[in-house]
Every structure is written in C-alpha cells, then in structure tokens.
Amino acid sequence: MPRNDTAGFADTDGPGASPPGPAGPGRGNVLDRGVRLLRAFRPGEEALRLTELSRRTGLPKATVHRLAEQLVGLGLLQRAPVGFGLGIGLFELGELVPVKLRLREAALPFLQDLYEATHETIHLAVRDGLDVVYADRIRGHTGIDTPARVGGRLPLTCTGVGKVLLAWSGQELIDEVLAQPLPRLTAHSVTDPGRLADELARIRRCGVGYDRQEAAPGLSCVASPVLVHGRIVAALSISVPAHQAPPARLAPAVRTASLALSRVLSRAGPRR
C-alpha cells in the first residue's frame, strides 16, 4: 500500500486560513474532511469529478482537490480520466477489519448451507449505531433486487436483520430508537413506536424477526441472531419475493444456521 508523509496532510484551507472551528459545511478537521470525501462515493461509481465531490461534501473545490491528491498519495484514492476514484488501499484496509477476518469467514459455510437448502438470497449483517451494515451476501436464484449490498447500510427498524440486532442490543438502545421518529422506506415500514416495541419483544421470545416489505416493495425476509456468550454479534437472514410462500416457512432453517454459527464463534475464543 503506498505511503506518504502524513505531516503533509495539512489541516488548512490555504495560507492565512482561520483556525479550525465547529464542524459544519466546509468545516471540520482534516480527518473529518478526508472521511467525508471518501464517503461521497456511492455504489457503482468508478470516479467522480471535482465539482461533484465538492457538491456532495460541501467543501470548496480547492480543498477537495488538495485532499484528493493527498489521499492518492496514501493509496486511498486514485486518479481517473474524469476525476478521482476509490483506491486499492481502501480494499486492503477493509480486508483487515475483524468482521472480515473472523465473523465473515466463520459464517461463510453456514451462508452457503442456507443457500443450498433454499436457493434464496442470504445475508449476514452487523449493527453500527442505528444502522445495519451488511457484511456478506449470496444472491438467490430468484434474482430479486434487494436494497442491501455488502458494506451498505439500512436503518435497523426497516429490516429483519436490523430488528433482530436491535432486539438483543439492550433496553437502553431500544429506548433510544423508540424515542426518535422511525424511518419509513416503504408504505409497510413500522413507524409506530408501540408496535415496534411489541415486535421486538416477540423477536426475543421466538428467536426470529421478519421484514414484510418494509425495506423494499415486493421483498420479505426472516432473520435470526448470532449470539456469542449471550451477546449479539450478527444476524443471518433469508430474503424471498413477497408473493411467494410466507417467509415463516424458512424460519427453522435460518434459526438452525444462526445457532450453529453461534456455537462455532463461542468455541473460537473468549468473549470480547
């Protein structure tokens, strides 16, 4: 991975720039601005022009250009004919993330077993704040489009895996989520706090949670938790077209796989 002197990653917008102030449009420290630049890219975009990067980040074009050149030197961006694209250094760093090194590799045989048993789309997901982050995916034979992609995020409350992760994440987090306006991705998304609280209680009792066209029209799923020494670390799910048989028929399969993965991870080492 290319290296550069990080002292050159200057925290100014040019000669005579004002000292850093509170974060806001065009402000924030250099790390914050660098991350905003990297997060400006969306799935399927190989490169972005400076003008578009400036628009998405709220940073001046001169600042974007200087940061982008420094990120190129670090291997996190690369030059492209029409601007800049994400660099191979991000891929190298991503391969070192623990969710890849331990969880994803341990889960892969169980994802494959679920796929072979159902030929439906299989997901492995973890929680980050109030979002689901999808760690792995096997696309099913039905070819139905899902809003989830590996590395992508969705609200906890609009997905089967998200509701499962939330149900086992403790009452403090549940209270925090219920105290906020609940996001609506489709007309079926649960936006009533009382209804969601009841559903989370059922998930804890039954060991499975459902998404009934709440993240995307025409898509349903059933999910189950992966627990290590009683602590939620991930969730598995099977997604099916909503017009097929109810996803509840797949609940035993996903529950069996999640329990087996939980045992493997629990034996692998002490609780962290």
From TrEMBL:
Keywords: DNA-binding, Transcription, Transcription regulation
InterPro entries, alphabetized: GAF-like_dom_sf, HTH_MetabolicPath_Reg, Tscrpt_reg_IclR_C, Tscrpt_reg_IclR_N, WH-like_DNA-bd_sf, WH_DNA-bd_sf
Listed Gene3D superfamilies: 3.30.450.40, Winged helix-like DNA-binding domain superfamily/Winged helix DNA-binding domain
Keyword flag Acyltransferase: no
Keyword Lipoprotein: no
GO BP terms: negative regulation of DNA-templated transcription
Name by which UniProt lists this protein: Transcriptional regulator, IclR family
Organism listed in the record: Micromonospora carbonacea
